[in-house]
Amino acid sequence: MNKKPDISVIVPAFNSAKTIRRCMRAVLASKQSNLELIVVDDRSSDKTTTILKSFSKDPRVKLIFHKQNRGTPTTCNDGARIARGNYIVILGSDVLVEKNCISKLVEPMEQDLSIGMTQGTLISAFSHDTESIGHFLTIFGFPYELYSQRYKSLKKPMRIFGARAVTACRTELYKKIGGYDEDYIFHGEDTDFSWRVSLAGYQIYTIPLAHAYHYHFKSEKLAIAHYLYYEGPKNQISNIIKNTSLPILVPMLFLNLIIWLGLSIKCLVTKRPAYARGIYGGIYWNIRNIHITLQKRSKIRSYRSGNNDTEKIMFGPIGLRQYIRKGLAWLRYV
Known about the structure:
Number of strands: 12
Number of domains: 2
Number of helices: 12
Radius of gyration: 19 Å
Structural class: alpha/beta
Largest sheet: 10 strands, mixed
Strand content: 15-25%
Helix content: 40-55%
Oligomer: single chain
């Protein structure tokens, strides 16, 4: 491919044999013709590698194969390092985009230089329910998704705090803020990345008409559930310390710790000691690595824009009653 692509689509893949072929075909069939597709295999143990190699003759496709499993943030960053497009689009390997999805994600950034990142509408391929159009934060430091009936009929772009699925970002901005934090394996890396996009002075919008379908299987969710109890507190606490101003950092960090410690007690009472150990391990990781986190905080301050309005929009439109209802539902679930 001699012509420089406008868009670089990055797909991190790990044991994705069930969906990766359809994912790649959907991207390559996109109405956005001038693109490159970069797939990074994070040392899969199923047939993913074989399927990826079947696309090796397509000049639009670039393949990277990790020799060891390194996690989603590193996988995305490795793809971004060889990306040549003006925009980076990141898709899960279990996501199928509609033909006009990618062009719709990029269009607002072409029209408005203040927009640095966009998210499409992620729809369950099984139930056809909307899974996510973006997220905001609660004062507890936990993200909450905008997937309720209230936003089901949304047609026009809406400003959000965080983008976590079917995302597009300016390549220059991606590299300016250092990409995803590679100390994260999964969970919370998208909130952190969005947070830093906003702190750099850019806005993030959800694009409701950019549709993509999610083929996430329940068995896969269960397989990583125990690990989430470590990565959850580890990454959320790190996000708060890295990105918040002091007036918000203190109460948010305190409330976040209270929630995680309360959840650890529930895990002990319900005879899930491994989950409780995971929570304590995630908290301890932040104590042990506080010097590294503070170095990252200092680096963020170096590109933080004085015109950013992050803390004015980060909590979104949700009210106290909804906070409580969502919180109680989450506690029952976990």
